[in-house]
């Protein structure tokens, strides 16, 4: 009996000691449990924000570069247009001087060719001609008037291009000159400058037609070689290298600046 009581007391003491050493935690189910977001999600969200910001910055930089390049292209295009216009002005001014010189020479040629050395003849009894008879002078006056009108008309077209920078008006004036004065000594010049205007406007087919008119209808004209050079370049740009080479090689056989330009073009492109 005593041994049983002692055993019970021993077990009770051991159980109490164990409970004191390992207390069971008490959880209050009524209080809210705080939850914190996973650390991995926070890191991912921060990386996404940084990537989005970097993409936006790069986009802004690219847009600024595009704006700068666009402005540079517009500036270069304007400068190129000005260079072309100055070249055309120089060509046209030289053309007007040469045309005036040629017109003066052609006007003086008939008198030189028709000049006959005086011959000694016996005096005749023919009465002096009637001073009032001016029928022989009428054709000469009419021809001089026509030449003056042709020149004035051509100069007007040239002024539209050279002084007023009116390429559209100049093109119309040059075309009208060809229609109104088909026998004008300036027809070849008018066709040539029509071709130059069309090239300036990017109308290559119309330019080709104008230059072809110079080459085929005015073979010996001073503008024929220049027109052939322009035609050679146009055919090369169109992909007709055979025709382009033919024209350019013809030009190289001539003299002057057109020949040098044609040879340079052949060396660089063929």
Number of strands: 0
Strand content: under 5%
Name given to the CATH homologous superfamily of the domain at 146-270: Tetratricopeptide repeat domain
What is the name of the CATH topology of the domain at 146-270? Serine Threonine Protein Phosphatase 5, Tetratricopeptide repeat
Query: Which CATH C-level class of the domain at 146-270 is it?
Result: Mainly Alpha
Given the helix and strand composition, which structural class is it?
mainly alpha
Number of helices: 9
N-C termini distance? 130 Å
CATH architecture label name of the domain at 146-270 = Alpha Horseshoe
Mean pLDDT: 74
Shape: elongated
> What order do the helices and strands follow?
HHHHHHHHH
Largest sheet: none
How helical, in percent, are the residues? over 70%
Cα radius of gyration in angstroms: 48 Å
The parts where pLDDT drops under 50 for at least 5 residues are 16-20, 106-139
Write up what this structure looks like.
Among the domains are: 41 residues; 125 residues, Serine Threonine Protein Phosphatase 5, Tetratricopeptide repeat. 76% of the residues lie in helices and 0% in strands. The chain is built from nine helices and no strands. The radius of gyration is 48 Å and the shape is elongated.
